[in-house]
Write a structure and sequence with these properties.
- This is Restriction endonuclease type IV Mrr domain-containing protein.
- The chain folds into two domains: 77 residues, no CATH class; 113 residues, Trna Endonuclease, Chain: A, domain 1 (3-Layer(aba) Sandwich).
- The chain is α+β, with helices and mostly antiparallel strands.
- It is built from four helices and 15 strands.
- Helices cover 20% and strands 23% of the residues.
- Strands 10-11-12-13-14-15 form a six-stranded mixed beta sheet. A three-stranded antiparallel beta sheet has the order 5-9-8, with no helix packed on it.
């Protein structure tokens, strides 16, 4: 558990102990929000979407993600937003060091530029149905605009369908198994579609290895409803979108 830090209420000046929340990063490491010691808490008078999220970099894998901004309540009824350590800006590129290799000449296989999208708006997960809704919203954000929920889950584990895509959403607390990944891939193969898998509890080792071999995108979901990529095919899907 993270160490608590003192947070002084700006209304009654009472000092409260606050324990920073910890979230699971997509790499599997616990990520504790780095509260700024000595920072000045801000009373929350009204909420906006932008101010409710903060950027934090995982110290284990280096991934930069948005997480719910930490909040603390006081006995007097005041609720404050606790500041976190700001993410340092990357240093500007400097001149190449003496003796370093020259930049590669233009050429080679061209890569499409990343797809530009607005920020994804997650759906907070409280039920299994929320997991499916969050996954559907995420696929629409990726460019699959006609996503529909399957009325009854098929034997192959398909929960969502759209033009050129089928998806499975595993809301259980156990890791998604190899068989589920293989069945989803076969279903997508029959439909000439992209298979995408979402899991709340992650994947077994052999399921992830098979997904990598089949080039099947895997995402893990946290309770904020924001899917995170866990393999290279998922990163490519985010970068390239549906290709349409």
């Amino acid at each position: 558990m993270a160490d608590s830090v003192p947070v002084r209420c700006p209304t009654c000046r009472r000092e409260n102990a606050f324990t920073p929340p910890t979230f699971p990063c997509a790499c599997g490491a616990p990520l504790t929000l780095p509260v700024l010691r000595g920072g000045i808490p801000v009373e929350i008078l009204h909420r906006t979407w932008q101010s409710s999220w903060v950027e934090v970099r995982c110290e284990t894998c280096g991934r930069l993600d948005e997480w719910p901004a930490p909040e603390s309540g006081c006995a007097c009824g005041t609720v404050v937003r606790v500041p976190v350590v700001p993410v340092p800006a990357p240093p500007p590129p400097g001149p190449p060091a003496p003796g370093s290799p020259a930049p590669a000449p233009p050429g080679g296989p061209p890569r499409r530029p990343p797809v530009l999208r607005p920020a994804f708006r997650p759906v907070t997960i409280r039920t299994a149905g929320d997991c499916v809704t969050a996954a559907a919203q995420y696929l629409k954000w990726l460019g699959f605009t006609d996503i529909a929920r399957v009325p009854e889950r098929t034997a192959s584990g398909v929960d969502l369908r759209g033009s050129g895509v089928v998806a499975q959403v595993d809301p259980t607390t156990r890791a998604t198994k190899l068989r589920e990944v293989e069945c989803l891939w076969l279903n997508a193969l029959n439909d000439s579609a992209v298979a995408v898998c979402f899991s709340l509890a992650g994947y077994s080792r052999d399921a992830r290895a098979r997904a990598d071999a089949l080039h099947l995108p895997l995402f893990v979901m946290d309770l904020t409803g924001t899917p995170q990529p866990v393999n290279d095919p998922a990163d490519e899907l985010i970068r390239d979108g549906t290709g349409r």
